[in-house]
TrEMBL record:
<feature type="region of interest" description="Disordered">
    <location>
        <begin position="50"/>
        <end position="89"/>
    </location>
</feature>
<dbReference type="InterPro" id="IPR009097">
    <property type="entry name" value="Cyclic_Pdiesterase"/>
</dbReference>
<dbReference type="Pfam" id="PF13563">
    <property type="entry name" value="2_5_RNA_ligase2"/>
</dbReference>
<protein>
    <submittedName>
        <fullName>Uncharacterized protein</fullName>
    </submittedName>
</protein>
Length: 252
């Protein structure tokens, strides 16, 4: 599949969708379901020196080079990391391989992120699978390698209903937990499959474990438990079928 000429879409130059395989029967049984998020005020950008783009506000980003599966159904930021394999591709912090929630849920998630997440102006709501990833000039080659491996990965249901957090030295990152009802290891199997293709992109493995999460923001340690409780009270669960991954990059 020929990659189109790079086009800048808001802060993202490329957003590429790669579908997992599915049969007509499976598609009927596992159709995406979205529980409408509670009404939220329009998100406001924090003063981080960048305007809020349509992608950041939750508007639907345009898909570039959307591909079907093989059955034919439709360490400084920004600096390249040294390659860890014989492939010789450098990793950058401006690209990622992700799973994104339904676009209808962007507004509710971004209402939280606009106030609390330092990365809000740079990225859409997403769950990183491999990050940092390769420069977007490598996306066409990466796509070819991913298609064959994804043919063996089945779609699965994902649900965002609970908030968790990571504790850091000076603050805590609060995130939505991507639960997979009926198959607790589904997300980890997807990640393992992607890591088989790109073993050099193992930065999302911490202490030998991959913990999928959708970042909502950063809080001080003394405030984190109260923040999770408050967010949980106002949150309406979002559920959908993960049937594709996306390659994204930003230009700033």
């Amino acid at each position: 599949l020929e990659w189109p000429t790079p086009t800048r879409i808001a802060t993202h130059r490329h957003l590429q969708r790669l579908r997992l395989p599915t049969s007509a029967r499976h598609a009927r049984a596992r159709a995406p379901r979205t529980f409408a998020p509670a009404a939220a005020a329009a998100p406001r950008a924090r003063a981080v020196g960048a305007a809020v783009s349509p992608v950041d506000r939750g508007d639907a980003p345009r898909r570039i080079g959307t591909m079907a599966d093989k059955r034919g159904k439709g360490k400084g930021k920004g600096k390249a990391s040294e390659p860890k394999s014989g492939r010789g591709w450098a990793k950058v912090h401006k690209s990622a391989l992700i799973v994104a929630p339904p676009e209808e849920a962007f507004a509710a998630i971004n209402a939280i992120r606009a106030e609390h997440d330092k990365a809000y102006p740079r990225w859409m709501p997403h769950v990183n699978t491999l990050y940092p990833f390769f420069e977007d000039s490598r996306f066409g080659d990466a796509e070819k390698l991913l298609r064959a491996r994804l043919a063996d990965v089945r779609p699965f249901t994902c649900r965002l209903a609970r908030f968790g957090h990571f504790a850091h030295k000076r603050n805590c990152t609060v995130w939505l937990e991507p639960e997979t009802p009926g198959d607790a290891e589904a997300f980890k199997r997807l990640h393992a499959a992607l890591l088989e293709v790109f073993p050099e992109c193992d930065d999302t493995v911490r202490g030998g474990t991959f913990t999928p999460h959708l970042t909502c923001g950063q809080w001080l340690p003394r405030d984190v438990e109260a923040a999770k409780a408050e967010l949980g009270e106002g949150w309406t669960a979002v559920e959908w079928v993960v049937d594709h991954v996306q390659l994204i990059s930003r230009s700033d």
